[in-house]
Amino acid sequence: MQLRTRWLPIFFFALAGCGNETEIPKEPTLFTDRDEMAFNREFGSGTFVGQTGFNSLVLENRGEGTLQITGITVSAPSQFKVTLPEGLTAETPLALETYKRAFVQVEFRPTDNIEYTGTLTIKSNSANTPEKVITLNGLGVDP
């Protein structure tokens, strides 16, 4: 009997340590995997003029309520081309349930040997950021 009593507190302690410590918010919550999309900027480099660099942005709902993405707008030079998530149009918002994801793809094709900047703005019913701004940054370099 004594052996069982010694293991019993350890067993309950182990069970108490299991589980999720954070609660999921009741409201829809927008999560993005980054705040800036930089194109080939590692080590001070850039993208060759005339070549195309690609980057993707993850949009995820981390709340219990349905996240409605109502619009994604771009304020950037034409060297940045954005592909919206499937299902999102000017007339139809994109609905994301809890832990569901959508992807925004951005292409960067420089035409000159200069730096290009812009922003990508995501509008939604998110409780944490109803308007999320992502910075776009690319550098065109001669081959």
Name the features.
single chain; 143 residues; mainly beta; six-stranded mixed β-sheet; 1 helix; 10 strands; elongated
Description of the molecule:
- With 143 residues, the protein is mainly beta.
- Helices cover 11% and strands 44% of the residues.
- It contains one helix and ten strands; from the N terminus they run αββββββββββ.
- Strands 2, 3, 5, 7, 9 and 10 form a six-stranded mixed sheet that branches. It has a four-stranded antiparallel sheet with strand order 1-4-8-6, with no helix packed on it.
- It is elongated.
- The N and C termini lie far apart (79 Å).
- The model has no long low-confidence stretch (mean pLDDT 88).
Number of separate strands: 10
Strand content: 35-45%
* C-alpha Rg (nearest Å): 22 Å
Termini Cα gap: 79 Å
- Tell the overall outline: elongated
Counting helices, strands and paired strands, the structural category is mainly beta
Please write the string of helix (H) and strand (E) elements.
HEEEEEEEEEE
By DSSP (H or I, 4+ residues per run), the number of helices equals: 1
* Helical fraction: 10-25%
Query: What is the typical, i.e. mean, pLDDT?
Result: 88
Largest sheet: 6 strands, mixed
Low-confidence stretches: none
